[in-house]
Amino acid sequence: MKCIFIILDGLGDRPIKELGNLTPLEAANTPNMDFLAQQGDCGMLLPVGLGIAPESGPAHFEIFGYSPFSDFYPGRGPLEALGTGFDLKENDLAFRVNFATLENNKIIDRRAGRIKDVSIFEKDLSFELNGVQFIFKAGTEHRGALILRGENLSKELTDSDPRQENLPPLEIKPLSPTADFTAMILNEYLRKTNEILSEHSVNKKREKDGLLAANYLLLRGAGFFKEIEPFNEKYNLKSCCIAGAGLYKGIAKFLKMDLITTQEATGAKDTNIKNKISKAKEMIDDYDFIWVHIKAVDLFGHDGDFVGKTEILEKIDKNLEIIKNTDCLKIITGDHSTPCEIKDHSSDPVSLLISGHGIQKETMEKFGEKNCENGKLGTMIGKDLMPKIKDLMAEH
Ligand SMILES: [Zn+2]
């Protein structure tokens, strides 16, 4: 049996007074998820383990059976770089990049006025310095990735992002003596690119139009790229990924899953859910394991917008009609909880449903946290999920 594996990023939540002490998932009208829950098994998932509020990257690694605490975990930089579509080579050093606006040596906007597209700068920001190749690749909106290819590089560095506005950008400092050279050339690169960007015709035009210039690069998440055992070999499955946001595309590329593109999959609140789920159904002929990632749920959690979170879950549910009766294993869960109450990731377990293997077991009326706590699957740990899925795929 094949499998459609849907991760609703930051799905888990806590009871909210304004929702009648229900969570957004419990308050949402979700007839299709309820149907799938009734046709399958439910439980709770602790993606990384008890008491850990994980970031999305490590949580996905754990769920896919790769420990984020191992040496090979590349960190955010290489994952974002892969997510731009760039092919990293072994030992490439990569950072995630935000375009910012620098004025009078202060970062006045950490997103450069949310500039829509930075791909125009790719060529001008890619050059050689002190024998090291610097390659800039654009991501979505104001985001991108910087790749350093060369000798004697180190990731033992501080960031250049002051994390707050109206502060000067930070000098990159070495955290060990072996990182002196890397820190030196990175600071030089940031000075040079600030000059290039300040004189760039695109920024001259932005300033004329009253927009903020995208004239400074904030670097974070340094990490080296290493090859690891691909997902398909580890599980003997042909897999693909349907995602919008760069990090998740990067995770898929790192695990060597095929990336399937869909129209309007933005990784933002406006993402086209119908296109993603329709594409998953279409891919079932060609793939054993189809991972669908929807980021929007988490974004509403971070904003504390419980109405928005409830509505996006209803929108997702409506589109689950497309695969409700597809003959395959259907799994819905999250990579962590993002409770609206705290606007951040928490260690709370997240609802899990596994459906489509033909055994009608659960009697619950509604898919949601409270009912899943009493589900037949109990509380599962992230790394136990893939073996369970593999068993079910083999049995049915
Ligand atoms: Zn997440």
CATH architecture label of the largest domain: 3-Layer(aba) Sandwich
Number of distinct helices: 13
Total number of domains: 2
> What do we call the CATH homologous superfamily of the largest domain?
Alkaline Phosphatase, subunit A
Helix and strand sequence: EHHEHHEEEEEHHEHEHEHEHHEEHEH
CATH topology of the largest domain: Alkaline Phosphatase, subunit A
Task: Give a short overview.
31% of the residues lie in helices and 20% in strands. With 396 residues, the protein is α/β, with parallel strands linked by helices.
Overview of this protein structure:
The protein has 396 residues and is an alpha/beta fold. The protein folds into 2 domains: 235 residues, Alkaline Phosphatase, subunit A (3-Layer(aba) Sandwich), CATH 3.40.720.10; 147 residues, no CATH class. The protein has 13 helices and 14 strands. Helix 10 packs antiparallel against helix 11. The N and C termini lie close together (5 Å). The site of zinc ion has 6 residues, from loops.
Give the topology, please.
Elements: E1 3-8, H1 24-27, H2 31-38, E2 41-46, H3 56-63, H4 76-83, E3 93-103, E4 106-109, E5 127-129, E6 132-138, E7 143-149, H5 180-199, H6 201-208, E8 216-224, H7 231-235, E9 239-242, H8 246-254, E10 258-259, H9 273-283, E11 289-294, H10 296-302, H11 306-320, E12 329-333, E13 350-355, H12 369-373, E14 378-381, H13 382-395
Parallel strand pairs: 1-11, 1-12, 2-14, 9-10, 9-11
Antiparallel strand pairs: 2-13, 3-4, 3-7, 3-8, 5-6, 6-7, 12-13
Helix pairs in contact: 3-13, 4-8, 9-11, 10-11
The protein binds zinc ion (ZN).
The site of zinc ion (ZN) has 6 residues, from loops.
